[in-house]
Description:
Layout: H1 12-40, H2 50-95, H3 112-143, H4 148-161, H5 169-185
Amino acid sequence: xxxxxxxxxxxxxxxxxxxxxxxxxxxxxxxxxxxxxxxxxxxxxxxxxxxxxxxxxxxxxxxxxxxxxxxxxxxxxxxxxxxxxxxxxxxxxxxxxxxxxxxxxxxxxxxxxxxxxxxxxxxxxxxxxxxxxxxxxxxxxxxxxxxxxxxxxxxxxxxxxxxxxxxxxxxxxxxxxxxxxxxxxx
Length: 186
């Protein structure tokens, strides 16, 4: 599956700061080049005064360079800001109880190790919640309906049901109860 972000600016403050630093560096480089050119401009290639030639050249060079550097730094910063944006979005979904979310970065993005760790942690958390659901289902089937413990377990069951772990509730819960019951019998 080819992953493309349709939005280039996903973390505006970071990306614009990154672009401005690139523009500043290019501005310094251009002006250093122009100063060196001014020192060498006494060669007299054009009929115009050297100051006019340098002024026009400097203006055009700076405008072109600023535009090019701005877009290049936006593209480069996108490889950093994009994954961070996705991690932030995934963490919000996990916080809402969706444990099926996975961090998937593009080939040239940075922070692949962070995405892999987030995915692994989410899978481990989901597995632990699935085990809790299994245990809860076993307790529900063994306690009956009248005891205080049964009502507490029912509340726990309801709260665990709020997490999306990717289980097909009907089939997997029955199977999980059978597995847990077999474990308890041993």
